[in-house]
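Sample A.
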Amino acid sequence: MTEPPGRRERKKAATRQKIADTALRLFLERGYDAVGIRDVAAEADVAVTTLFSHFASKEALVFEQDQDFEQRLTQAVTGRAPHEPLIPALRREIHALVRHCTADSAAPIWRMIDASPALRQYEESMRLRHAESLATAIAADPDPSRTPTACRAIARFVIDAYSLAREAPDPDAAMDEIFPMIEAAWEVTCPSGNSNGTAGP
């Protein structure tokens, strides 16, 4: 009998999470370079083809929340309340993400990433992709209109704000310092004198 879609999706999500959790445990126990894809698949009790159906590369196993991160950023733009200013909405989401990624439990993961050129390169490409998705969401915001270049610049500033705050000794202080600069840059791009990213009177 065919499984209902809801159950299939839950099983798929559970398998994906099991693979990611297994990979991270092995990477932290043995070292990222010492663990291969076949090791992860065997430990998670899945076929290598199943692993690759969920994760496109070994690096992606470390950044298993990549898609969720990207969706949260774009939804901060598209899902905010009517007339809510854009930059404060993005600041609120970035602050939540920074707090999540600076928890004590995340420290060993970031040390592993910082020690691996392959993971650092993957993170950089991931950040650029997130910035492009965020820029697209900002550009689609109808009120007020900005140029594509302005939208991409602001999106990159926001993504860089996340990275800088995450790496700072005092993430909250870093956010307080960075986001007024982003707000000022956003105001400069305003084509109609409306400085808060909401509809004018």
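Sample B.
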Amino acid sequence: MSRTAEEPEAAAAAARPGQPGQPAPERRGRPRSAAADSAIIEAVLHLLEEGASIGDLSMERIARQAGVGKATVYRRWPGKSALMLDVMRSLDIPPPQLNGDSVRDDLVALLEFLRRRGLAKRSSALLRTIVSHVQAQPELWAEYHETVVRARHEALLAVLRRGVARGEIRADHDIGTIADLFVGPMLARAILHDWKELPEGLAEDIVDMVLEGVRPGPAAAD
């Protein structure tokens, strides 16, 4: 089986003692190859799609499927759980681009993104398997939230702060709690109550109901 080629790269080196300003000879290293990364992640997905369980997978088996050496896999991931985290990231769809013109429309776009993610998880046994594996590893799940989920949450908070600045959302409540009012119903249906439907138009319904509740009253508007 062929191995994925990796091109060497120059490693940074400090100046040699006693010769200030003179660079040290370059050391040649082996950088990460994007092709190898993709081949390894695709190998995991292929094996899982063929019916292998995560417990069945070993780093050696993954390396064989990817056509790389075992050392190539271990240089990238210390173990299978860390690899699964990147596999899950590879299945993530990019968040929507917000135009910033309408607070309501941006909120709908963010909740529609959550709705589609919920539908994808329900329809994909592969995604459910990988997510459940990462959730069982608290440190990996925390890293996923820090690197992926947090960015989405910050985008929501930015939209809500814009709504407060425009006088469309009341300013006398914690902005994080208001954010929970928007995403909570969608997450409850998608995760806690997975027998409930996630119909088209649900994002709009949630946004309009919550906006009605958090809109400043006449006294606050004055």
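B remarks: The beta strands are 9-11, 27-29. The longest strand covers residues 9-11.
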